[in-house]
Each structure stands twice: as structure tokens, then as C-alpha cells.
Design brief:
By secondary structure, the chain is α/β, with parallel strands linked by helices. Helix content is 43%, strand content 11%. The chain is built from 11 helices and 6 strands. Strands 1, 2, 3, 4, 5 and 6 form a 6-stranded mixed β-sheet that branches.
Amino acid sequence: MNRSGWLSRCARFVVAMHNQLIAEGSQVPVSVLCRLLGVARSTTYYQPHARHLEPHCDPVCVEAVRAVIQAHPTYGVRMTHARLTKGLGMVVNRKKVHRIMRLHRWTCRQRRIGRTPRVEHRKSIAPAPNQRWATDIASVDCGQDGWCAFVPVIDCCSREVLGWELAHTARAKTAERALEEALLQRFGTTRGAPAGLTLRHDNGLVFGSRAYRALVRDYGLKQEYIAPYTPEQNGLCERFIRTFKEECTWQHRFDNFAAAKAIIARYIKHYNTQRTHSALKYNTPRHTYLTLCPPHQQAA
């Protein structure tokens, strides 16, 4: 029996005994009964609270939230609210969205944050576009073609995916093609990188190969290696890869390499131009780049 049920039973017993004594002509105060029975007087006057009723949810808002969750199953409360307000133009409070998602069990489970010792942190965030780029390698299951290598190159300020490559093998040529696409996308030429542009990555064999280092140096970029066993120093690219897996590769079962490449291309376009980012004040990466970069510095 829970505490509420026990208090209710004690209160009913004391009140019933008190009424019986009054019916028999004995005027015994309630305080005396409580003292004889060893029960606190507050227990006698306890009144159980009415059962909390769940608030009524606006059906129109519920259907709008449902549509966003069905289209983007990994979105949490803040991303769903941003999609409703900025993407669909709805006027809705974030607490209301949170209440609807909680009542319908549409919220996402959060990972526990460990407290393992870390080395000195080196931020990968850049204050302006084209100051630091980041790259990494991830594996993608391409069905009958097996596991393939996915190499993105992102801007550490706007979070825009500038270039990417999907190949059957994770060789230096794969990373080189991703970097060349990023240079062409941002500057229109492979040799248009501004002075001081750095490329951050881990200590993998691909990024440390002689061919890759020569290519980066020839294109005018400066390589920036993170400390060993500290992936958080390349946190922006690592976080993008997690988002890419949650919202793209884990949501599909690719039949082959060609199907995977087509779907990934659509997702990258969606990520750059439509998906809002919490660290960018719920703006898209492309909008952030156009806002921060002067017009005369923007490439076609």
C-alpha cells in the first residue's frame, strides 16, 4: 500500500471511531484519540488530492508534430519546435511541443554523459567561414556492394558540408576527391583557398599519407592533426557523422552503391539548405554562410 492509501485509511478509522463515541454520548476530542492511537492529528484531517488529469492537446498541433516526427524520427523537442516555427510558420510554444511529445512518448532517449579524463581541449569551432575545415571517414553499408567509405568536408563555422565522397575503399584518393569537391564548391577552383585555411582531421593513415599531404600542401591548405585518442578535438565533423548516420544511413537499407550515393546526395542537400542547426540559432548552414560571409567573398 502506498503512503496516500495508508493515510486515507487512518483518517477514516479515526473519524469513524470519533463519530461512534459521539453517538454513544462520549465527548472525546480528536486530539485525545490520536494520542491514544499513536497517530498524528494531521493524518486525521488528510484529504487525498484529486487525480491529476492530463491537459487537453490541440489536435491540429498534435498532427503537425506527428508529421515532423514521421519525417524526421531523430528530432528532439527543440528541433521539432524549430521545424514547426521556422519551417512551417506555426505559432506554438516550445513547452506545448514538449508536452505533446511527452504524452505521446515521441521524445528521444538521451545518452549518458561519462566523466572520463580528457586532455586539454582544442576547440574546432571557427569564428568565420573559410578559416578551418574538418574531415573524417565513416563506413556506410551499401547492401550487396558491402561496406563503403564516406568522407565529408565541412566548414567549422557554418557547419556546411562543402564536399563529400563515397567510394568502395577508404584510400587517399577518396579523401582527395572530397577535398577537391569542397574547394570547387566554395571557391570555384581547387587553388582558390585563402591564406591561413586549415584542415583538421585525426591521425589516420589516409590523412597522413604522402600523396594526401602533398595534395593539401599544393592546394594551399595547412593540415592540423588532433591529439591522439581525442576525437572531441574534431568534434564538429564527428557530430555531423553521427547526425548523418541517425538521419540518413540508419533510416534506409541501401540495395547497392548507386542507391546509397543517390540518397546521400539528397540528404546532404537537405542538410545544407533546409535542416536547422541548434548551434546556429536554428538557421541552416547555407543561410549562416551567406549571412557571415560578405557578398564579394562568396563564390558562385
